[in-house]
Amino acid sequence: MLLATVLLCGISTAFSQGDQAQWPELKTFHSFMSSTFHPAEEGNFLPLKEKADSLLVAAKNWQASAIPVDFKPEKTRATLAKLVTQCTAIKKAVDSRATNDKLKKMITEAHGTFHTLVGECRKAEE
């Protein structure tokens, strides 16, 4: 629970209103990630199973969108590609009725990649 609180605080800091307005695809993806990861973290996999396709579409749309100037373009592109790969694998795992343990591991890894995108892919404040 402490980890979840720390991560939520970090994501809140990473998401100022300006960032969301600048990159609406990030905001859309975040809504799907949040509504699938957090329930899975608590043992409820139904939202992930119901929204795996939407999570993938949101990841692909984010990848196809223009990268704002306050993000490192090469690192962002590479990390978005990784996220799309992870979301594709999640969708396939859901479709093949993978175990909840496997789904939890996969969504947790994708969640980590998301945090890399909103944190490490940003340019340093000048």
Task: Give a brief rundown of this model.
With 126 residues, the chain is mainly alpha-helical. It is built from six helices and no strands.
Description:
The protein has a single domain (2-118), classed as Up-down Bundle (Four Helix Bundle (Hemerythrin (Met), subunit A)), CATH 1.20.120. It is 78% helix and 0% strand. The protein has 6 helices and no strands. It has helices at residues 2-14, 17-22, 24-41, 46-64, 73-95, 100-118. The longest helix is centred in the middle third of the chain and has 23 residues, at 73-95. The radius of gyration is 14 Å and the shape is elongated. Residues 1-21 have low confidence and may be disordered.
Key terms for this structure?
single chain; disordered N terminus; elongated; mainly alpha
